[in-house]
Amino acid sequence: MAEYRAEVVIWMLSGTLSLVMMLVWMAQAQAAPGGQIRGYDAAGFATYFLSTWLVSQLLVVWVAWELDFEIRQGTLSAKLLRPLDPMWTHYASHVAERLVRIAPMLVLVTAFALLSGARFTTEWWAYPAALGLAALGFTARFLYEYAIGLLAFWTESSTSFQELAWLVYAALGGMFAPLDFYPAWVQAVAVWTPFPYMLGLPAQLLAGKAGPEDALRGALVMLGWLVVFWFLRLAVWRAGLKKYGAVGA
Amino acid sequence: MTRYLRLLRIFTGATLSAQLEYRANFVGALLASLGEVGVALLGLGIVFGQPGITSVGGWSFREALLVTGFFMLTEGVISVFIQPNMSKIADAIRTGSMDFTLLKPIDAQFGVSARHLNVLRAPDLLIGLGLIAYAASGLSVTAGGVLGAALLYASAVVIVYCIWLALSTTAFWFVKTQNVAELFNGVFGAARFPVSAFPLPVRAFLTFVVPVAFITTVPAQAMTGELAWSVALASPVVAAALFVGTRLFWLRAVGSYTSASS
């Protein structure tokens, strides 16, 4: 992965949605009477959205595209001969990319923070807590995107499903605004999904707007969802392999 | 000229019949279009959903929706007309099939720009036009405003085409250009909001460095009749300058091309 250092920086910069939303909200807060919206001033928005950007960088998953390619081109067949589920190769390469990503990411976040006036929390425990939640969130996202990618066994539109899944993740995760800005009924739905805990919650932790008990509750919910996604992935994988054998034979 | 029009018709017919063979892909393209419009509308909807917010950067909801409409329309223009062609330039250079394009007795830039079409993303165009029509129905729009918007949007399309072509032409020197296009998409994402919704330095960047402002905000302003004459004139000038610039860049790139094997 270290070979792709230049690309990694470009990929990081191309995920601009949270940065665009940050700039819009900052301008809105400056124009609002009292200089703030729902308790967020311009610097508060900068902190929240930069945190979201940071966390979303750790949650990037592209496995659905790779599976789509492998299934369509048939390169999956060779991998099936190995005595290890191909999932682990993908998982390892995603984790490795994270390690390459971290250094340029910190440089960019520092630069953006200086430009926008963002202030991250000074509570030390928030950082390991956010990192832990991001790790859980990444694994959950990896598993459900893997299941979506496996839809390529049946349909040619699996990557489009992945784009729709991204939309739900971005919306309910809080990439457009902090979750408490959403209509009440959307919030009521969102708390039952994993998305607020994988993106919004770690961002709120970094911004100093969530406490240790929130982190703990989020971690428990995420663990529950991990179990669900684990078996979902396994079920789709087993069903898909039967189908794949039928085509290849 | 008539020869180019005839070629355009042949190209269109050929890609149409090639694409309509894969009907299942239509579902996927439709999902992708819905995703795009979902992102655009959610971003706007949540901002305007806050109590006390009635405008973003001085634009009312309807007016901002007009910008979103132009954004979706441009997404459509990119996915239907521009991206399918431009993404193949790098491949053609890498595999050497660019030789065939250059040998043909037509202008090579026309050849690489007009050959392909992704009709499956046509819903984007319809969604964009629909949003524009819906937003305009709640505003007082004059016939002159619509005409002005159409003319300025033509400049906008030229600007988008030129930026994509310039980025793709770098493939003559660098093997991979997919990532650069990705970067443009990132910046272009800012065009879903009126440019005045951004802080001042960013506004300047979106106007003068990457002229995103001319693509969606300016046509929308023309439609609502709030466009200053200086900006209205600047848009075609920028488009023309970019066109000449990318044309020269393209000719230079082709001049330095030595085929894949040498």
Automatic annotation (TrEMBL), chain A:
Report whether Transmembrane helix shows up as a keyword of the record. Answer: yes
Its transmembrane ranges are 45-65, 99-118, 124-144, 164-195, 215-236
List the keywords (alphabetical): Membrane, Transmembrane, Transmembrane helix
Any single Pfam family the record assigns to this protein: ABC2_membrane_6
* InterPro entries tied to this protein: ABC-2_transporter-like (IPR010390)
Return the protein name. Answer: ABC-2 family transporter protein
Task: List the source organism.
Answer: Deinococcus aquaticus
From TrEMBL, chain B:
Which Pfam families does the record cross-reference, listed alphabetically? Answer: ABC2_membrane_6 (PF06182)
Q: Where are the transmembrane segments?
A: 26-49, 64-82, 125-147, 153-175, 195-215, 227-250
Keyword Transmembrane attributed: yes
What keywords sit in the KW lines? Answer: Membrane, Transmembrane, Transmembrane helix
| InterPro entries on file | ABC-2_transporter-like
Query: Has the keyword Transmembrane been applied to this entry?
Result: yes
- Name-wise, this protein is ABC transporter permease
Q: Organism classification, top ranks?
A: Bacteria, Thermotogati, Deinococcota, Deinococci, Deinococcales
